[in-house]
Structure to design on (374 residues):
């Protein structure tokens, strides 16, 4: 990577990774423009098949956004008005919005401190006769502990839908996160590891009937299931988004290798106690570093020092969703202490496929020195 010569270090660079793709995109766009096949054409079909294979499922359906994917997956999992869906408070708003849009109730349980994912030990305590599903979120690209989650779901006859918006490429015990649960969902928002140039999403399905129903709904066909009639609406993945995603998918491994290298540089400077820890080490887990986080009790001081050194950072998720204005539609199980603590302590460092390695060393040195000084 080219050194930055002490220029400001941004959290994202959406342009540089597009440069080697530009010519191919322009050639394909001209063919697309003159084809007349603007909706659900060859590009969407190719992307659905390739991503289904890479995520270890039989079926994938492209939809208009990651939020739409969540809504559709939960609906096809049988979530009805008044049902409860157990999930994490330490996630983006869309996770609970999708539940509330179905007139269902998000039930939040606490997270694990080492990976910031839902704590399986807290799930069973939250189950009631209204519980319909569990929705884990592999936050920042870290795998959730899926074996105990699926065991609890099987014991209580619950559905598992994985909100994989930040987890494309993430592995749990050597298998893609997308292969766990009845369905999982993906977002192609431009800041994601596999990015589009606008909105887009995907639903991964184990069952052909789920995929068929979602295809109908995204194209304005009503679907009746579980004694409920679901209306159709426009939720199709744009052909032009799929075209760009197919090109970016071919470069995903190379771009992800650059992210992994940046993370390994940070790891050299940042003590393990202050960053992601694998709760199931040596079992084939792989984090894709959608974000790289460091936790620090004096977070605001660290953020100010990085800002003064020209380094952009961010704070996620402070406060967690149990403090969101939508919390009147939610139920909380337990005290959510770890989610609250993470909200106060976690700071997001720059990480992306175009981040110069020299910049990563610079950031790592600043953070490591601050943490060493207590």
């Amino acid at each position: 990577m080219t050194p930055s010569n002490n220029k400001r270090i941004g959290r994202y660079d959406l342009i540089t990774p597009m440069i080697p793709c530009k010519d191919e995109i322009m050639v394909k766009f001209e063919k697309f423009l003159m084809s007349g096949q603007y909706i659900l054409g060859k590009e969407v079909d190719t992307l659905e098949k390739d991503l289904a294979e890479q995520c270890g499922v039989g079926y994938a359906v492209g939809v208009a956004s990651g939020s739409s994917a969540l809504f559709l997956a939960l609906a096809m999992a049988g979530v009805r008005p008044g049902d409860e869906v157990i999930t994490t408070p330490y996630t983006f708003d869309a996770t609970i919005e999708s539940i509330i849009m179905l007139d269902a109730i998000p039930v939040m349980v606490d997270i694990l401190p080492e990976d910031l994912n839902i704590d399986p030990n807290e799930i069973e305590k939250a189950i009631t006769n209204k519980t319909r599903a569990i929705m884990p979120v592999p936050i920042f690209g870290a795998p959730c502990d899926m074996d105990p989650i699926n065991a609890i779901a099987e014991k209580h006859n619950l559905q598992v839908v994985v909100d994989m918006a930040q987890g494309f490429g993430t592995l749990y015990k050597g298998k893609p996160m997308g292969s766990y649960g009845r369905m999982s969902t993906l977002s192609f928002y431009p800041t994601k590891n596999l990015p589009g140039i606008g909105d887009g999403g995907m639903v991964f399905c184990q069952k052909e009937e789920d995929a068929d129903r979602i295809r109908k709904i995204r194209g304005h066909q009503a679907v009746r299931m579980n004694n409920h009639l679901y209306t159709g609406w426009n939720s199709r993945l744009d052909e032009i988004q799929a075209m760009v995603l197919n090109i970016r998918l071919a470069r995903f491994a190379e771009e992800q290798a650059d992210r992994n290298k940046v993370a390994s540089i940070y790891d050299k400077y940042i003590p393990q106690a202050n960053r992601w820890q694998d709760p199931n080490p040596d079992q084939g887990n792989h984090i894709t570093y959608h974000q790289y986080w460091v936790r620090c009790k004096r977070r605001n001081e660290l953020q100010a020092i990085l800002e003064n050194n020209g380094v952009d950072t961010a704070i996620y998720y402070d406060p967690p969703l149990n403090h969101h204005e939508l919390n009147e539609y939610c139920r909380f199980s337990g005290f959510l202490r770890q989610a609250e603590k993470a909200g106060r302590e976690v700071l997001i460092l720059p990480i992306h496929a175009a981040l110069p390695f020299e910049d990563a060393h610079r950031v790592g040195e600043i953070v490591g020195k601050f943490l060493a000084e207590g």
